[in-house]
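Lecture notes, unit on binding sites. The following record was shown on slide 14. It pairs a sequence with nicotinamide-adenine-dinucleotide.
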Amino acid sequence: MNEIQRIGIVGGGTMGHGIAHVSALAGCDVALYDVDEARVAAALAKVRSNLDKGVERGKVAPEERAAALLRLSGATRLEDLAECDLVIEAIPEKLEMKRQLFLALDAIVREGAILATNTSSLSIAAIAAGGRAPNRVIGTHFFNPVHIMALLEVVVYDGTAPSVLDHVLRWGARIGKETITVRDFPGFATSRLGVCLGMEAIRMVEQGVATAEDIDKAMVLGYRHPVGPLRLTDMVGLDVRLAIGEYLAKELQNPAFEPPALMRKLVGEGKLGQKSGEGFYRW
Ligand SMILES: NC(=O)c1ccc[n+]([C@@H]2O[C@H](COP(=O)([O-])OP(=O)(O)OC[C@H]3O[C@@H](n4cnc5c(N)ncnc54)[C@H](O)[C@@H]3O)[C@@H](O)[C@H]2O)c1
């Protein structure tokens, strides 16, 4: 493979549609797969709407938007991703679900194709295990919203082939991201610090230290964080962060990551943050 050109995305939720957006805008052909037609259509509609906003704000030229949309297609069969150079998974943060998907993809994609996971915390080695060619597996951890955030955290485990890392770093630059390369360790370089702060902020709300608004204001104005930890938890999704917290508490043997009771309660009530309309804030 000379350059990564054909991209497959599995899961068109918060992250998947954003990865599709930046890939198509950078000139790649993108096939976006989700579990049913309605979800595929919703993901494609979100890409379209964000590209429209980009045009309105003068960030995207109208002809770039038109070209990106022509490169983007939907898929409801995993087999439709067979010819891709790179398939990126962005399905829920559940190890067994990702493992099953990687086994299925491994049997479908062509030799030399790269399989990447957008996991926030899970072991890349565990996701890669059992496939025909585990050395083609790598982590590509994007940040939300993908079309705005500059960082791509690339995660390699001991088995990742150096050529796979080279390809992904070059592709990351092509889609306009700054990359960092991190070892396969629970939570990598980003989630380990970010989720720790988020869990502590939730415990502070629980203990009545201050309101969510004021805790966020403290970090924004006092520490120059662009977004406070509670607003960020809303943006990521409380359910997503809860799963990451449970995993990191176990893997790192560190109770700081244990999801607080308030978080479990909100998730139980369907208050997942921005995507459901309410979390620590109303959206
Ligand atoms: N939300 C964030 O801010 C964020 C940031 C970085 C990384 N991540 C990671 O990205 C991944 C996806 O998170 P998200 O927030 O986009 O989740 P999400 O819940 O918004 O979207 C998940 C999508 O996957 C689809 N899906 C579920 N099971 C599937 C399957 N078996 N095959 C194909 N599609 C399936 C769902 O229909 C949904 O569209 C997770 O691993 C998460 O940890 C999330």
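Take-home: The mean pLDDT is 97.
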